[in-house]
Structures are given as structure tokens and as C-alpha cells.
Amino acid sequence: MTWDLPLWQSLLPIGRHPATGGYRRYSFTEADSGCREWFKNAAAERGLRVECDSVGNLWAWLDVRDDLDRGGAIVAGSHLDSVPDGGAFDGPLGVVSAFAAIDLLSERGPEPVRPVGVVAFVEEEGARFGLACLGSKLLTGVVAADVARDLTDSEGISFAEAIAGAGLDPGLVGADGGLAERVAAFVELHVEQGSALDGMGAVVGVAESIWPHGRWRIDFDGRADHAGTTRLADRRDPMLPYAATVLAAREAASECGALATMSKVRAVPGGANGICSAVHAWLDARAASEETLESLVARVMECARGSADQHGVTVTSRCESFTPVVEFDRDLRDRVVTALARRGTTAPVLPTGAGHDAGVLAGVVPTAMLFVRNRTGVSHSPAEYAEPEDCAAGVEALAAVIEELACR
Ligand code: GLV
Ligand code: MN
Ligand code: MN
Questions:
Q1: Is the CB of 358 under 6 A from ligand 1?
Q2: How would you write the pLDDT of the chain (408 residues) with one tens digit per residue?
Q3: pTM for this prediction
Q4: Is the dihedral of CA 191, 286, 381, 57 positive or negative?
Q5: Ligand 2 center to residue 136 CA distance, Å?
Q6: CB 284 within 8 A of CB 263
Q7: Which protein residues have a CB closer than 5 Å to ligand 2 (ion)?
């Protein structure tokens, strides 16, 4: 196959910011509704049955004849939402590839003996409501409906209001207790968000594990005052402990072989000639083990408190999103690697520091991930890219895995 798919081309313009070339596909916004329409059209063109679950996750089903049906479905997919100014591939590559893999299977046979599904999870990035993988965490019961309903975006709109605006009933949001019975395996294909595969000369990889990771909101409250008349000694400037915390996060992460990022910050009220009254900051932290992650975050918070004290500022923090370590199902992983090897594809097994809905589903159903080479390794950026021939190889690999799991 080739990657000049109308399916991919028709998704590309939706939610792309004309000035930056990055995607701003936030859940339940106009861009998201364009993506949802695109999904429904893709399903309709293939004669797939569409379902929207209580959370807003979209499913497209290739049903099987009753006399063939061996039970649990094989589902592939990913997400269509983006980070602010995200790339074209993170999420959509997995959804488009799932539809394209179904096309390949239909062309080449054999006939599935299990239903095959394509899913697009909502709010994977947590860019609007702050909680990563919200759609899959709600579906699997990892996040309670009450907690989700009360989450708010930067304008104060709640998740409940947002999904009501999209025609869903917030009162019905909740876990799907029948998921484990209905779905025999979930496979998420994703663009690699690093360049390990390129270093190994491989086009497709298989996930081994996901580092535990989370986001913490840190609020520094000081006192607004005049930039030209307030003596340095009299200031209670929240920007100073914030700055110290950014540097401490970097130092602590480097010392414990982990990752810490403080890229989202809001200064209030944010005038150039005034000391701000508050700084709202976010820490994204990831490590190979939960112990390391815990001690990294503790060190950062200790610095925030110490520096805040020094500057007459108060500090409060809370965890907005946390995903524990994930080890993908070893039997399924081995089966995937073997099925690919049988077709001449050597797929290295890799850990990753990036979060995915697959990591959440892994707690409930056997789950695997395929990564597609990204030669520059750049992601969460308009520069994110995978070569068309690598995307095509990803579809071939996904089709092989679906055939292995759904046609025997
Ligand atoms: C998702 O891409 C994440 O790791 O934040
Ligand atoms: Mn992402
Ligand atoms: Mn993603």
C-alpha cells in the first residue's frame, strides 16, 4: 500500500492553526467536532457501525456473522485531540492506520472471526481539562464520573457542560463494566515520540512499558505591586519562587535520571510594569519507577516551599493527573512480535516516557502498542513527522496484527 490516503488528507486541515501550522484540536470544540464528523464519515464509507459511548469516545465496528463469531473484539485506534500546536501524527496516525488496516484486511482477507473496532478516545492529551487520557480513564473506571464532571477548562467551562454542548448526557458518564468481556485485545499504533527506532534501523517497534508520569499544578500567591516604586526588599513576588522551582525541577530530574518539564505558566494579572499577584505553574514529571518519580516531585515541592518562604509568598500544589507504571501484556506482545517477524518485519521492543490510552486500557484488557519511526524524534510540535513509506509500513504491520488476532 501507499500512504497517499484521502482519509489522511481529509483530516489534515481540521484544527490546524494557519499561523503556526500546529493543531489545536481540543476536546468538544469546533475543531474536535470536525474530527468527530470525519470519523463518522470514515466509518460510513466503510460500512462500519458507529457508536459513541457515555464519555464521548467514538467506536466504529466491523461486525462478524453470528456463525463465525468467536467472541471478544479486536480494537485498534488512538485519539484525535492534540496538545496546543501539536503535530499531525500524535493520535491521528493511529486512528487513520486502524481504518486503513481494515481496508487492507477487506481487500486481502481472510475474514475476521471476531468483531474489529476502531476507536478514537477523547481528551487523551488533557489539553483542555488537565487530566491526561480522560476518555479512557473514565471508560475503565480509573477516574470517577463525579471527578470528571467537575473538571474545568481555562475559561471555567466544566467537563459536564462541554459534553452536554456536544449532545451527550453528563449524567450518564461512567465506566463500561462490560469492556473486558467485549474487547479481547486493544492495539494502539502511534508515531514514535523519540528517535530510538531510527537509531536501530527499524521502521516499526513494539511497546514494552510506559514510565509512570503525572502533572502537578503549583500556585504561588504573592502581592501585586508597582514595578517602579516597590523596593526589592518589600516585594512579595511570586515569580521568584516560580523561577527557582523551574531550575530545581531541571536539576532534580537530571540528578535522578528522570524528566521534568515546566512549560505551562500563567502570571496573574500579567502586566509588564507590575509585580504579579500570583503565578500558576504546571510540573510534568516522568521517571522509570514510581519511587524515583515520587522523590523527584518531593524535591521540587520542597524547593518551591523553601523559596516561597524566602520571598513572603505562599505556595499550594495538587496532582492533576497521574498514570502509574504500565507493563504491556507480555503474551500479546510476544504474539505481535512473532506475527510481524513471520512477515519479515523485525520490530524492536521499546519502553516509552509518553502516555497513551493503551496504557490505561492495559489495566483492563490485553493491550499492545506499535510505534512508527519518527526520524527526527520531534513530537508535540508542528515539526512532528513520519515518512509516508514508514506510515504505510505501520498500516501493513497493524493489519498483520489484526489479522493474527481477529482472523484465527
Ligand atoms: C501524551 O502524549 C503525553 O505523554 O503527555
Ligand atoms: Mn501526545
Ligand atoms: Mn498520542
A1: no
A2: 999 899 999 999 999 999 999 999 999 999 999 999 999 999 999 999 999 999 999 999 999 988 888 889 999 999 999 999 999 999 999 999 999 999 999 999 789 999 999 999 999 999 999 999 999 999 999 999 999 999 999 999 999 999 999 999 999 999 999 999 999 999 999 999 999 999 999 999 999 999 999 999 999 999 999 999 999 999 999 999 999 999 999 999 999 999 999 999 999 999 999 999 999 999 999 999 999 999 999 999 999 999 999 999 999 999 999 999 999 999 999 999 999 999 999 999 999 999 999 999 999 999 999 999 999 999 999 999 999 999 999 999 999 999 999 998
A3: 0.97
A4: positive
A5: 14
A6: yes
A7: 90
Inter-CA distances, 22 with 10, 117, 291, 317, 329, Å = 16, 29, 35, 30, 34
With a 6 A CB cut-off, is 191 part of the ligand 1 pocket? Answer: no
The residue whose C-alpha atom lies closest to atom 3 belonging to ligand 1 is 355
Compute, in angstroms, the gap from residue 272 CA to the centroid of ligand 1.
Answer: 32
Nearest ligand, CA of residue 23?
Answer: 2
Which residues fall within 8 angstroms of residue 251, CB to CB, at 6 or more apart? none
